[in-house]
# Entry
Amino acid sequence: MTAADEREHAVSTTEPGTGQSTDRLAAENLLEVRGLQKHFPLRQGILFQRQIGAVRAVDGIDFSVGPGESLGLVGESGCGKSTTGRLITRLLEPTGGSVVFDGEDITHRSPGRMQEARRDLQMIFQDPYSSLNPRHTVGTIVETPMRLNGINPPQGHKKRAQELLETVGLNPEHYNRYPNEFSGGQRQRIGIARALALRPKLIVADEPVSALDVSIQAQVVNLLQDLQREFGIAFVFIAHDLAVVRHFSERVAVMYLGKIVEVAERESLYTRPRHPYTHALLSAVPEADPDAVERRERIRLAGDVPSPIDPPSGCRFRTRCWKAQDKCATVEPPLTRAEGSPTGHLTACHYPEEPTVTAREEDIVLDPALG
Amino acid sequence: MSVQTSPQPADVTPAPAPFLDVRDLKVHFPTEDGLVKSVDGVSFTLEKGRTLGIVGESGSGKSVTSLALLGLHKGTRAQVSGEIWLEGRELVALPEAGMRALRGRTVSMIFQDPLSALHPFFTVGSQIAEAYRVHHKVSRKEARGRAVDMLKRVGIPQPERRVRDYPHQFSGGMRQRAMIAMSLVCDPELLIADEPTTALDVTVQAQILDLIRDLQEEFGSAVVIITHDLGVVADVADDILVMYGGRRIEYGTTRDVLKDPQHPYTWGLLQSMPHLSGDVGERLNPIPGSPPSLINLPDGCAFHPRCGYKGWVPQGRCTAERPELRLVSGGERHLAACHLSDDAKQEIRGGDGPDGRGAAAARAAQ
# Structure
């Protein structure tokens, strides 16, 4: 981190979070994220670099994760979901806001002190090819977290690593092999064994199955689900596949351009989405059922996600929204509890949808190329 | 080689010759480790105005098949055999010069990754215009006008201005639209789309799939769409061809294959995917193991090491004898390559209903 960055942090004010995502007390939560921001500076000039703007990748989000709970984080590419994952695990330094993990504020912890927190806070990465060191054996990869944290299991490092390999469904005799001898699905299992080595309380899984073949995805999803149930690990499950997130997460947050636009219990979000973006997202998921294709309503948004360098004023979704009014351009909608929802369905929209998916009869097609 | 001697039986084809008729296509690559049989005897037909979805995992040979349709294996080490008939012309034996005249004009392709398929040094407009000028004797100005028209047709805002942009100035969805514009600029009769939406977000994917469908209706072309996503084929395809280990294992109409699948691999694909309306309490039912190596495919049925139902077939035929693609009883053109008898399939799948017998059988078999 540079000195300039440090000044930036000192200047940035931490805004208190407005949305209360659940009825749990804040103290009971394993992870509390309040007003979290990450702005990547854009600089110009060769010698005297001046900042000409910032990519507002994550721009003030609040959420919490209870012990043993699985929170899904969905959104399209560029919405800031992966950045959020890296901020929680502190692989990136937040620009503003706070991350409280297990009762301790880790927002600006030094890398040395962060190591303690990482015992309980691990990450599974998307790409099983680049996230394993090709020159280390599987055994070394799985043992390293224990050695770095000075943990000496009673049965010894090797035995413990072999147990972990067995837990994730790999042959413990493969301890001395190198990552290149394994397939994508097996490599992802190695990554999971490494994340489990310290018995963490929370695992941030960043698109853990999207790089895998369809038939292998289900194996890894089942494994993660077993581990969650068996060891009571909380998960932040980041993915763009809405069906996988629905299967894995009890609560789901939808992100759009660095903001959370909707958070709710799984059932409530998928059957009664209130935010037009969530609605559009759900209608766009292709389903392998010819009958569903005929039944389904068609919402086709125009264009792509706007640039996070200069996001739209007011509601960020208004440029692609079919319900946008003048108010949407001026007032940013706060994340508020949806009417008539006791389960804590929060949505950030001035004109939320009626709580039913099938109410609408006609298609909404905003794309000029589509008739 | 005639159809009769092919190892897989000829499909039931209507009397007039189909628009596209692929017969016993084989693409083999000699390597240091042995012969990689990427595609090993694939046949299918396609009429104009229809869409065929080719489904399979990585290494199933679906992309290699599509490259063969475009003749892109010519001049490489690949050994291509079989026949590809396109409107009465045979493409496998066609020399490169002849293929060139067809490529882009009669047959064109949408590639998976638009960023690497578009040239970074030239403007989007000039690349689209080039594709047009190769096949039509027109001035640069006319070709540019055609490029603007095409960009407008695929829904790119301000096409007169964007035609001068470079690919990096386009977003992912817009690049894919530009690719589609380029592939449609000569009104091709056969359009091959190789994973056209895999790199895109769902909302953009839905736009692109709708666009391909709209354009197909407008131009009346035949479309081959290659994907690993059964949801995508359910959305756009009329017919589905499921590939595994370079061979066809199931072929039929979209409704037949998705609603009444007849091969355990297709069952596995359908069961291993979570659905938006599925029961979240239920565990996914994955296919065990991983896809086979194409150098030494398992003997017999290529899927048998991962199949939970080989115990249902007597005398271990699954491991000894490769199942022929045969007509599913009761179906007109629904083909599947599996030794399981209809009764056995009925019994296995009969329990998918409320009594849960099939699910129990599936668990017991694994």
About this structure: Chain A touches chain B through 48 residues (CB under 8 Å). Chain A has twelve helices and 14 strands. Residues 275-365 of chain A form one domain.
